[in-house]
Amino acid sequence: MKRSFLEELGLEKDVIDKIMSENGSDIENAKATVTKKFDSERETLQGQIEDLKVQVSQRDTDLSDIQKQLEAASENADKLVEAQKSLKSLQTKYDADTKAWEAKNAQQAYEFAVREKANTLKFSSSAAKKEFIREAIEKGFKMEKDAILGFDDYVKIYQENDPGAFVAEKDPEPAPNQEPPKKQPNIVLPGNSGVPGAEKSLSQLMAEKNANPDMVVKF
Question: What pTM did the predictor assign?
Fold first, then answer.
């Protein structure tokens, strides 16, 4: 946002300064969020790469051992049976390791998605945000691509149960040079209104008049 644009709108200097300062803060916060997201994704991918390296290295070692057993088994039927058992056991182990690795990656993706969602909310403190993320992760919501099913409903319930965890929404401030809304005048009815000295607003009088067309209102 350019200062010249705000000056053309006829805003005062102190108002422009506040807008520019707030805009600068928003830009810096956006940069920090993008950087944090990039670092988090990089760490996650790096962890996955390291896991794969370990698995590939172990798999190469296991296959090498099986190959040696098979070569030795070509001259001995008993060793062939033993090698086949070892190969079957190794395949079972690989299947289990693959499922565990996929589950780990899915959990990491889920936790990352929860944190990203939490970053769009305004919490009253970092401790409140941390507790919200912890409880949301424990819920174990189902994922549909990048969407967390049921998350928005969970946020609404959480806000109702613990409103202090979030920043209270403030009423919008009036624009510069804008007069505050005028208070609706009250009409004082005479003593025969039912309550001596009672004050009723114009809207209340209109409602009573509509309910009782024969009612006589004296000012």
Answer: 0.43
